[in-house]
TrEMBL record:
<keyword id="KW-0963">Cytoplasm</keyword>
<dbReference type="InterPro" id="IPR036397">
    <property type="entry name" value="RNaseH_sf"/>
</dbReference>
<comment type="function">
    <text>The RuvA-RuvB-RuvC complex processes Holliday junction (HJ) DNA during genetic recombination and DNA repair. Endonuclease that resolves HJ intermediates. Cleaves cruciform DNA by making single-stranded nicks across the HJ at symmetrical positions within the homologous arms, yielding a 5'-phosphate and a 3'-hydroxyl group; requires a central core of homology in the junction. The consensus cleavage sequence is 5'-(A/T)TT(C/G)-3'. Cleavage occurs on the 3'-side of the TT dinucleotide at the point of strand exchange.</text>
</comment>
<feature type="binding site">
    <location>
        <position position="67"/>
    </location>
    <ligand>
        <name>Mg(2+) 2</name>
    </ligand>
</feature>
<feature type="active site">
    <location>
        <position position="139"/>
    </location>
</feature>
<dbReference type="InterPro" id="IPR002176">
    <property type="entry name" value="X-over_junc_endoDNase_RuvC"/>
</dbReference>
<keyword id="KW-0479">Metal-binding</keyword>
<keyword id="KW-0540">Nuclease</keyword>
<protein>
    <recommendedName>
        <fullName>Crossover junction endodeoxyribonuclease RuvC</fullName>
        <ecNumber>3.1.21.10</ecNumber>
    </recommendedName>
</protein>
<keyword id="KW-0238">DNA-binding</keyword>
<keyword id="KW-0227">DNA damage</keyword>
<feature type="binding site">
    <location>
        <position position="7"/>
    </location>
    <ligand>
        <name>Mg(2+) 1</name>
    </ligand>
</feature>
<keyword id="KW-0234">DNA repair</keyword>
<keyword id="KW-0378">Hydrolase</keyword>
<feature type="region of interest" description="Disordered">
    <location>
        <begin position="155"/>
        <end position="193"/>
    </location>
</feature>
<feature type="compositionally biased region" description="Low complexity">
    <location>
        <begin position="162"/>
        <end position="172"/>
    </location>
</feature>
<dbReference type="GO" id="GO:0006310">
    <property type="term" value="P:DNA recombination"/>
</dbReference>
C-alpha cells in the first residue's frame, strides 16, 4: 500500500509518501511546498492543490492522509488552515484517491506512542522507523508521520476513547473510507458537539 501524507499549511505544506508491505515501511519521497507570506491566499491554495496533484501523479498513492486543523484561538488562522486542508482533499478527489483525516494527537500517538509528543520526538521516530538518511523539513517529516499513522490505523483501527481493548481493536466501530461529510459523521460520532 502506498500512502501520501499531507501536513497542510498556508506557508508550508509538507508532503510525504510511504509504502507499506506487511511490517516493512519505506519512504518513497518527501517535500515541502513553500509559499511567501505576502502571496495572496487564493494563490497559495492553488499552489497547494497543484502540488498535491503533482505528488499524486508522481507516486500513485492508494490513499491520502491529511492532518485535521488543530483547534486554536485564532479563528482566521483556523479558517485558512481549513481551506488548505480542503485544497488537499479536492486534489485527492479529482484523482479519485480516498482521503482519511487524523487529529494531531492521534498522529503523535501512532508514531511516538504519546499523543503529546514534541515535534522533535515525532521527527526522531519518523527518521528511525523509515531509516531516513536524507534531511527533510519539519513539515515533510510531519507529512511522513501522517502517512505512517494512516498505515498503522489501516491495520489496527482507530484509537479507543479511554483506551479500552475492545475499542482499540476497532470492534463495534465502523472504519473505512471517508467520501463525504455524512460518512465522516457516521464514522466519528464522538467528534460531534
Amino acid at each position: 500500500m502506498i500512502v501520501l501524507g499531507v501536513d497542510p499549511g498556508t506557508r508550508h505544506t509538507g508532503l510525504g509518501t510511504v509504502t507499506v508491505e506487511g511490517s516493512r515501511e519505506r519512504a518513497l519521497g518527501a517535500s515541502t511546498i513553500h509559499m511567501s507570506g505576502d502571496l495572496d491566499h487564493t494563490i497559495r491554495l492553488q499552489r497547494i492543490y497543484e502540488g498535491v496533484l503533482e505528488a499524486i501523479d508522481a507516486y500513485n498513492p492508494d490513499e491520502l492522509a491529511v492532518e485535521l486543523p488543530f483547534m486554536g484561538k485564532n479563528a482566521q488562522a483556523m479558517l485558512k488552515l481549513g481551506r488548505a486542508q480542503a485544497a488537499v482533499m479536492l486534489a485527492a478527489m479529482h484523482r479519485e484517491v480516498p482521503v482519511a483525516q487524523y487529529a494531531p494527537a492521534e498522529i503523535k500517538k501512532a508514531v511516538v506512542g504519546n499523543g503529546r509528543a514534541t515535534k522533535d520526538q515525532v521527527t526522531y521516530m519518523v527518521r528511525q522507523r523509515l531509516a531516513l538518511t536524507e534531511t527533510y523539513s519539519e513539515d515533510a517529516h510531519d507529512a511522513l508521520a501522517i502517512a505512517l499513522c494512516h498505515a498503522a490505523r489501516r491495520h489496527t483501527g482507530p484509537p479507543a476513547p479511554g483506551g479500552s481493548a475492545k475499542a482499540a481493536s476497532g470492534a463495534g466501530r465502523k472504519t473505512g473510507r471517508v467520501r463525504s461529510w455524512s460518512d465522516f459523521i457516521e464514522q466519528n460520532p464522538e467528534r460531534l458537539r
